[in-house]
Amino acid sequence: MKENFFSFILTLIILVIIGGLGYIAYYYFYVGDESIVSEIVATDENLNETIKPLEPIKQSTDDAKVLPLDTENDTAITTQITSGKYKYYYDQLDSNAKKIYSKLEDNIENIKTGTATLDFGDEFNSLLNEEQGQVKLNEAYQSALDAFSLDYPEVYYIDVTNMVLMIYSRTNLFGTTYTTTIEPAAGTDYLIDEYSNKSAVDSALAKLESIKSSVVEQTSADDTYTKIKKIHDFLIDHMEYDDTLKRPNTRNIYGALVEKSVVCEGYADAFKYLMDAVGIPCVEVVGTGTNSAGETEAHAWNYVQINGAWYAVDVTWDDPTIIGNGIVPKSTYTRYFLRGANSFNSTHFANGQVSEGGKVFTYPALSVEDYN
């Protein structure tokens, strides 16, 4: 009996030792120690400076509105407008940046919460095991955010400086495995200050959808040129330039279409947003502009495609500054409407640099001559 008992105890001890060794082997070979490698924080892509229209022009208070829209209607529309999405900047990204862009695109609803974590798993493990892999991923992340913001002006409610790309590592005897997420910075969310939750975002977007729906309906029977012209003129009649530069939404489509006062980014974003809605290829362009006083500052405008060729449109500089009453010559509305390179590029200089650390984008080649 004693021999059987000691044999049992010995067997039990051996099993415990084997189990312990197995756990240790599993931990070091397959699990390892997890640690945070880095937090990659994007820079804000917004322009630091903006330019007013070239010169003050009196505007008549009797001018008819091209597209009379009820922008004060707060009723949420239940039917979403089906529209194209011209993703010009996505096509210029490398494969890693495209994965990040697509993750953002696929999670637009989740992003509205400001707290959602977007999990890439070990999608970038091979890259991060390369020399300079983290630097390459950082560049891809910034470039993806820049491209996404230009292609999707309707996702204006994100504060990218509070959105971080987290890299985690787990090391064992086989090497290091990296996993990656996009998540809010510690102790905060990544919604802009004007929005506290998804409900607030959805309420704001409903107002924008209502305006977009009206534009689509009122231009549905028009040809491409007429659509572009009506939307160009609607924005001019609908908005005014924000000289204060201090309004919370002065750089986005909500400030443009609902609050009606923005700087050049807001004009360019709104034009892109509505061109997407009516299915016309359009891109937002960043660079510098030189006004009639010889002053050069950061600026934003658009290129739009018609009949297979690209033309420049600067809604900001076509918008007369209101000084008293008077009649505005019709030509003032089209000084920078459907312009070719010969006339437009003497005052506008595209540089493709949306933010420091991101990709330098290229733009469509403008037609040499203005549209006739």
Structural write-up:
Strands 10-9-8-7-11 form a five-stranded antiparallel beta sheet. A four-stranded antiparallel beta sheet has the order 1-3-4-2. A two-stranded parallel sheet has the order 5-6. By secondary structure, the protein is of the alpha+beta class. It has two domains: 2-31; 38-350, no CATH class. The chain contains eleven helices and eleven strands. It has helices at 2-31, 95-106, 108-111, 125-128, 133-151, 198-219, 224-238, 253-257, 264-277, 315-318, 341-344; strands at residues 33-41, 118-121, 163-172, 175-184, 240-241, 261-262, 282-290, 296-306, 309-313, 337-339, 348-350. The longest helix is centred in the N-terminal third of the chain and has 30 residues, at 2-31.
Tally the helices: what do you get? Answer: 11
Tally of structural domains: 2
Largest sheet: 5 strands, antiparallel
> Would you list the SSEs in sequence order as H and E?
HEHHEHHEEHHEHEHEEEHEHE
| Strand content range | 15-25%
Q: Alpha-carbon distance between the termini?
A: 108 Å
Helix content: 25-40%
**Structure summary, number of beta strands:** 11
Structural class based on helices, strands and sheet pairing: alpha+beta
Uncertain regions spanning at least 5 consecutive residues: 48-83
Average pLDDT figure: 83
